[in-house]
Amino acid sequence: MDFQYLEHTADAEFIAYGHTVDEAFVNAARAMAGLVIDPAKVKPEVEKSVELSGDALDTLLYDWLSELLYIFEVDHIVYSRFQVHVTPHEGGYTLEARVWGESVSRHPDISMHIKAVTFHDLRFEKKDNIYEAQVLLDI
Amino acid sequence: MVAADKLKKISEDVWEIPTDYKPGMNVPGHIFLSDRLIEGLESGAIDQTANVATLPGIQRYSMAMPDVHIGYGFPIGGVAAFDTETGVISPGGVGFDINCGVRLLRSELMADDVKPHKVDLINALYEAVPSGLGSESKFRVNDAQLAEVFRTGARWAVENGYGVKADLEHCEENGEMKGADPAKVSKKARDRGRPQLGTLGSGNHFLEIQKVEKIYDEAVAKAFGLKEGQVTVMIHCGSRGAGHQICTDYVKTMEQASRKYGIKLYDRQLACAPLSSPEAKDYFAAMAAGANYAWANRQIISHWVREAFSKYYKRDVRMDLVYDVAHNVAKFEEHEVDGVKKALCVHRKGATRAFAPGRSEVPVAYRDVGQPVIIPGSMGSASYVLAGTQRGMELTFGSTCHGAGRVMSRSAALKDIRGNEVKRQLLERGIVVKAPKDAAIAEEAPEVYKEIDEVIAVVDGLGISKKVARLVPIAVAKG
């Protein structure tokens, strides 16, 4: 399973899984994108690069998803394909990613507005050799 | 009554969370709900109210207003006041949509003048004010102008031709929160804010043409310029992406600050810093800038609403601002605690300031009757105008609820409710709804909210604000 949505009375929450850190970060992005649109409908026409660094994987996850919300809102692009490479280094991690999508204007069926990523219930951990990324979004 | 079993009823409509509810609580929690409304209270909202009580320097109680529902960090409807020397400031206690708020314009028109034209009028408003997901403004501000918006709020709008000076006198903080520093707002927040000034947004934001259906207090209503049958326009929106990004940035800053200052957090979204710290000062300066953006936004929208009415009626239709209140904000205010006047930082997340008569913060025109408190309902349900009271100063640091409060999630509403059906039912009741798409109507349908009349009955019964007028919708433009 790549990700699953959790029941939440007010907002949107999910757990994304991965055999590697990179895969879990990709699946977290796919889970968030899936709340906005069916990714199968989005052509990967526009490409964008993302570079981030952080001292812990959970805060890097917060930054990664927040960055995707930012570029969605500023570039007016819905993103559906993600490639992530997280590298550990002394004192933290670096994330290099490429994302692909297309103009929001071609997708008038988008209805959900995600306001922000929250720290509530945020976790990134390895369980039985699988990485789990749990995220609650303010919608 | 699973959730209520955890609470102790200490007086009519007041429920206490004792300090032994969870380790670390510095003060009890107080939740204001009727016996009927407590049935729907989520356990998570009790936990969140208790979590707030663990924060350093909190005064008297962690509180939840009658529209309380689950959020993260603070519950929605949460109010907490912190000592300025020993307390903290928390972006999670303000929320992502900084100064999401509501304002009320009173018109010179009567309902009979408007009802035959309600479809044309709501279409005109919908055209005049960009709304919906990803909506962009009709005008562009450059970086220097945006900095002035962050610094001076509604004043920037009025000085640039979007409103009149009297509007500023009738805004909380005069629409210009002091201490704002655009330099503390990130590039990302500026990027998100620049194209969205003068937009309604989506979600629960709306423009509504209403009729004053009932007056409860003639004298106060007269002071507010309200009378039965009169047409009003209510505007509900906030700081858009600028506010969302400011909060996103500073929750992360505060996460690090909480560790630095050794503050134990029961929810990471409650990340905070001592009010005397540089992190707290930076956040307050950025939050105030976000609040000012929201006031400018509502001011610009008000101007377009006035223009749309005047253009439609082919004459200058007078529409004065009754008042503009903030919902998600932290403010420095003086309050009495155990008989001593103290400077406090009051956080209101999904709550409205409701100051008593005599307070210097209340506009001169209303100072004898108390601050106007504007409580929007949902599409199809009534909204209320109330006035702040001395009882509110004593019981809730001059705070009251901000709406009806959700009982159903947006995702559940989208699954269970059909927007076109809601639209049809409302039309049968004479209410026209205009929205970017039917889904926006479904997720804000009347049944996803508590009964506003019951919520207001608690507020009025407790005396934390007194009912002045009941307004009913004629036509709604949804974000």
Automatic annotation (TrEMBL), chain B:
One of its GO terms (molecular function) is GTP binding. Its EC number is 6.5.1.-. Mn(2+) 2 binds at residues 236, 327. GMP binds at residues 204-208, 327-328, 376-379, 383, 402-405, 478. Residues 173-197 are annotated as: Disordered. It holds the Pfam family RtcB. Mn(2+) 1 binds at residues 97, 205. The keyword Methyltransferase does not apply. It is an enzyme of class 6 (ligase). Keywords: GTP-binding, Ligase, Manganese, Metal-binding, Nucleotide-binding. It catalyses: a 3'-end 3'-phospho-ribonucleotide-RNA + a 5'-end dephospho-ribonucleoside-RNA + GTP = a ribonucleotidyl-ribonucleotide-RNA + GMP + diphosphate; a 3'-end 2',3'-cyclophospho-ribonucleotide-RNA + a 5'-end dephospho-ribonucleoside-RNA + GTP + H2O = a ribonucleotidyl-ribonucleotide-RNA + GMP + diphosphate + H(+). Its cofactor is Mn(2+). The keyword Nucleotide-binding applies. One of its GO terms (biological process) is tRNA splicing, via endonucleolytic cleavage and ligation. Binds 2 manganese ions per subunit. The active site is at residue 402. InterPro entries: RtcB, RtcB-like_sf. Essential for tRNA splicing and maturation. Acts by directly joining spliced tRNA halves to mature-sized tRNAs. Joins RNA with 2',3'-cyclic-phosphate or 3'-phosphate ends to RNA with 5'-hydroxy ends. Belongs to the RtcB family. Monomer. This is tRNA-splicing ligase RtcB. It comes from Methanocella paludicola (strain DSM 17711 / JCM 13418 / NBRC 101707 / SANAE).
